[in-house]
Amino acid sequence: AQTVTQSQPEMSVQEAETVTLSCTYDTSESDYYLFWYKQPPSRQMILVIRQEAYKQQNATENRFSVNFQKAAKSFSLKISDSQLGDAAMYFCAYISIGTSGSRLTFGEGTQLTVNP
Amino acid sequence: KAGVTQTPRYLIKTRGQQVTLSCSPISGHRSVSWYQQTPGQGLQFLFEYFSETQRNKGNFPGRFSGRQFSNSRSEMNVSTLELGDSALYLCASSFNSGPQETQYFGPGTRLLVL
Known about the structure:
The structure holds 2 protein chains of 2 kinds. Chain A is an all-beta fold. Chain A has strands at 3-5, 10-14, 19-21, 24-26, 32-39, 46-52, 60-61, 64-69, 74-79, 88-96, 105-106, 110-115. In chain A, the strands form 3 sheets. In chain A, strands 2, 5, 6, 10, 11 and 12 form a 6-stranded mixed β-sheet that branches. Chain A has a 4-stranded antiparallel β-sheet with strand order 3-9-8-7, with no helix packed on it. Chain A has a two-stranded antiparallel ribbon with strand order 1-4. The model of chain A has no long low-confidence stretch (mean pLDDT 94). Helices cover 0% and strands 53% of the residues of chain B. In chain B, a hairpin with a 5-residue loop joins strand 7 and strand 8. Chain B has strands spanning 5-7, 10-13, 19-24, 31-38, 42-50, 53-57, 64-68, 74-78, 87-94, 104-105, 109-113. Chain B is globular and about 35 Å long. In chain B, strands 2, 4, 5, 6, 9, 10 and 11 form a 7-stranded mixed β-sheet that branches. Chain B has a 4-stranded antiparallel β-sheet with strand order 1-3-8-7, with no helix packed on it. Chain B has no helices and 11 strands. At the A-B interface, strand 5, strand 6, strand 10 and strand 11 of A face strand 4, strand 5, strand 9 and strand 10 of B.
């Protein structure tokens, strides 16, 4: 069974600084998708970024970028120029190409605090 | 385009009762998935409905059930509530069913079982 592990329960960063959140996953599949979702205090899950495993290029979305290391099964999220609005719980998620349906497997989450 | 909506947002029930939660997907989306979020177990997949058919089911007891209507709106039902069912229930919609589809989440329904 696939598992997703986020080893940092909590992280903090100063406003305008850069922070990296870690995620590792265990799978025997070769094709899959990885996601980072953000859950602010409102509890609404918001998609931050998505990466297709067959793409070697790391995905970027404005201040958010990933470091995808397929061989190491690592998928970290880098937030540049951190803003107060980035404070949230961040979840890493995985889904295999071979999955029948849309079942996501989530990590435990990392609570990010942004200090002014 | 309106996002995923869930009703009610908050619910308090007592043990033994049953509850029905509703999820309206983004217009045009045909797949709806449900997740349970608790502090202890994290985010766990409950089930997915696509074109009114259950596509996938997670490892939950039969007390948890769902359905989808022809307009893609989905409901989940929990019968004989237990204290451990207290959780945030999230639904997510996508245009189609499948791993290539990005799922968009609703704000959730917070259920408290007393």
